[in-house]
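Fold it.
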Amino acid sequence: MLFDAGNTLLEINYQVIANGLGRGGVEVSSGALRVAEQKARIRLDDDLRSLKSTEAAETFRRYLGYILENAGISWDERAEATWRALRTYNPPVGVWHCQMPQASLVLARLREEGLVVGCISNSNGSVAQALEQAGLASHLDFILDSGIVGIEKPDPRIFQLALDTAGLGPEEVVFVGDLYSIDVVGAKGAGLRAILLDPLGLWPQNDCLKCRDLVEAASLATRM
């Protein structure tokens, strides 16, 4: 069973964003930002069909803009200042360094059941460090980082590299991620089955399994 990292195993530190906005006089809770992000990723997914890379600075700027818009916050000089501050926060990992709820328990249980458990992430070369910071790296058999291997999802070659690393065929593997055009399309292109994380039940796509959280994803995958 393979997982994406950001918004799948790793959660954004929403409090850091809230604190940054608060310094500019914009009050918003970390919980409100979390819900706003879960809506924003669906809108960003449409853009990712034409954007060159999920890792580009412009991609994150647009993504943050969608999050703030969903939280009722206009993009002004305070939002711009927050975005600039976030670009230099916690280098080289950035804001995705918090463990997703129940992630360690789910990963540990899957390995106890005898499954190979890995991670495939579009990243800047730091995802192993991020997973280590979050206490998740020890639960993974391997980690593939696009910044290191030179291939980004949805390119099926990075999924094939994971299959080669695991020594498994595509029919034996399930991939879990949070973006349809990156994770589901990429996994299916390599012959894997895919599960899309859909915490609010908002994704319109119906050609893949969807789940609300990692516990449900693991349950679906083991039944498959």
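The chain has two domains: 2-8+97-223, 12-95.
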